[in-house]
Amino acid sequence: MEKIEMIHGSGGQATSDLINEVFAKEFWNGYLAQMNDSSVVAGGAELALTTDSFVVKPLFFKGGDIGRMSVAGTVNDLLMRGAVPEYMTVGFIMEEGLPISDLKKIVHSMAKTAEEAGILIVAGDTKVVEGHGGLYINTTGVGFVPVGMEISPAQIEKGDVILVSGNLGDHHVAILSSRMSIENEIASDCAPLNDIVRSMINEGVPVHAMRDVTRGGLATVCKEVAAQSGKTLMLQEEQLPVSAQVKDFCALTGLDPLYMGNEGKLVLVLPEEAAEKALSIMKASHYGEDACRIGHVLRFEEEEEMQIKPDGGELFLKTAIGGTRRLSVLQGEGLPRIC
Amino acid sequence: MTDLAEMRRFLSQYDGPKMRIMEICGSHTASIAKNGIKEILSPAIQLISGPGCPVCVTPTAYVDRAIALAKRPDTCLVTFGDLLRVPGSSESLSAAKGMGASVEMVYAPADVVTFAKKEPDKQFVFAAIGFETTIPVYALLMEELLREEITNVKLLTACKTMPGAVSFLLENGADLQGFLAPGHVCTVTGSDAFAPLAKKYGIPFAVAGFEGEELLAALYGLLHMQGKGMVKNFYPSVVTAEGNPKAKELIERFFEPSDAAWRGLGIIPGSGLCLRAAYASFDAGSRDLTEDNQQNQACRCGQVLTGKLAPTDCPLFGKVCTPLTPQGACMVSEEGSCHTAMRYQ
Amino acid sequence: MCVAYPGTVIKVQPHTATVDFSGNRVEARTGLVDVAVGDRVLVHAGCILQKVSENEAAELEALMEEVKADA
To answer: Beta partners for A88?
Structure first.
């Protein structure tokens, strides 16, 4: 059979053939090999747990596919709390009509990404629903948190600097381009960020807060960090890294790179004196070549000067022409605008 | 030399007579917010967002009609992303799409030609909203439909002309001392389109571009044109006095003036354009939509837009009129006066 | 309203031209303006609205001086 049919969800022979043919081949490891109802894995002192669902259309896009995205997204969520990603589960909800050749490509891409990120897929499930060849993936990730590791917005201090690991908006623009009549070479930045985060921690960089820049873009993530920390963040428009291609795409479609999602970028908040070291670690990674400083956490005297409430948890942008813009989380869906 | 620093200094230190300046282009509104321009200006300079966003002023009845078409089994509604979230009387196009209505988002109206050729048995309706910038794009689409003998594409038009709305505001005694004229509308119409209004009401118009610095230049210019009924073009790279004659000819060929319903302002006579009778077979029923019977009678957008009322003084504000249930144009757009007031109250 | 942006014509076909915006390529209708390869043009909704004239800076400066002198 070349396409997913309802029978693949029967739980009988067709299901087990599909599992052997498509999934077991790619995801093979000691835990999965037991084919048990659940896997028993070695544990750690403190666990980081995360779950996510992936519904991206199209399933394949420049720079990645739904499979790579699902593993990278799960791994990155674990990394952002300082955890070492260890295990993950994957659930596939497949619409009938999905070409099995596509499914194989996606599963292969997941296996490769999991290998790159050093995470083991220890359990999985498939279901088939009526539809038109769509695919949705749900994941759960487990990571071990080293004792004493505390990375969260609560650690942020006034005067901290804000860094980002590279260009904004690449993933979002890659997806939108594939849906609109605009041709370009912009590829999704979809990637697991293990090497950046692990080096940061191994080399003792005192990271206060760390978030991956996903849906909603940099502004949404920074506003959430500001609100959680109670500190006010100031970004500098002139320092924001945006490629010329993404910048022009956004200008054409009335979008704002500050609100365009990535799938392989992170924002770091840390003390000024650690900034250079963190930047050089990021730049040394293939996924952080365009890392740069983008702003800082307002000091008390700056809050006074701007006449804003101290510790108001706000986010501002100093614009290139010298204006100040108050940023909120993404309102609406970030749809292209022509009129 | 009038450089950025000089303009910024002048605009932030200005302490002359109060200047209430209206921008009448949604992209100006967006750029003003994006560049943090209001924070640069002295308190004596106030910027007011006019009815310049075509989706915001598109009445509920139009959205309802678009949704009804999208729900027909043989019809696909094609639109810009802008219109997807605009609420109709019970739902938006985006919500209708979620329930199975056929809605496609495009960047270029001409994409509908490709769709129509690929599926000749299906009807495609383009939701043709916009001002003078976008209307020639629809005229070109019409030309292409005729040339390619395509019969399964229709337009649902809500085309509006900018001077009509400005005239309405000034006629109703808007307390304004200057206008930022819409740069891309003027690319088509020419800056002269605003000259009769400037002269009649003794109010200055500065045609502005869309980069932060271009907007500052136009504002700087306006402050030096106080009280003078004249139009100056601060966007000379693409705007001329007479505009684009070919575009104007094409509009004239396919469209004729009509009354138009503006959300929050009501019917403004002669402020719209409809397909000419000769092209009635390409019209998806737009002519029935020149009334907005859904309008909330208590909506005060007219007064907010003319600067007579603060958003918070409207009886509907924050009660029945919210960003999720907007009753008037000022609440539909994220940059509208009322929407902004809701976020920062 | 009216998002429009300048790009460069890289190819001209009947009724359309390919316009480049820093690597983003749009097939834009040419019915409103006659264009040649290399022209800077303003594009709105997949349609060329106008050619972009290159001496804006000088024109703007002259205009600034004019309004200041008149004020």
So the answer is: A121, A141
Cα–Cα dist B173/B192, whole Å = 23
CATH of the domain at C9: 2.30.30.140
**Domain tally, chain B:** 2
pLDDT of residue B344: 62
pLDDT tens across B65-105, in order? 999 999 999 999 999 988 887 878 888 898 899 889 999 99
Domains of chain A: 6-145 (3.30.1330.10), 153-326 (3.90.650.10)
Residue of B nearest to A324 (CA): B36
Q: pTM score, two decimals? A: 0.90
Q: How confident is the model over B117-154, as pLDDT tens digits? A: 999 999 999 999 999 999 999 999 999 999 999 999 99
Tokens of A31: 């835990």
Q: Give yes or no: residues B34 and B74 share one domain.
A: yes
Total domains in chain C come to 1
> Is the torsion defined by CA of A163, A167, A171, A176 positive or negative?
positive
Predicted local distance difference test score (pLDDT) of residue B113? 96
Given an 8 Å threshold on Cβ–Cβ distance, is C2 in contact with A339? yes
Could you report the predicted ipTM of this complex, rounded to two decimals?
0.93
Task: Based on the fold, state whether residues B70 and B219 are members of the same structural domain.
Answer: yes
- B60 and B206 in one domain? yes
Using a CB–CB cutoff of 8 Å, tell me whether B114 touches chain C. no
Hey, are the CB atoms on A319 and B36 less than 8 Å from each other? Answer: yes
C60 touching B, CB under 8 A?
yes
Q: Which A residues in the span 167-186 are in contact with B, Cβ-Cβ below 8 Å?
A: 179-182
> Residue C60 is part of which domain span?
4-70
The C-alpha angle B40, B42, B44, rounded to 5 degrees, equals 145
DSSP state of B283: B
Contacting residues of B for A256, CB less than 8 Å apart = 34
* B307 CB neighbour count, 10 Å cutoff: 18
If asked whether residues B120 and B45 sit together in one domain, one would say: yes
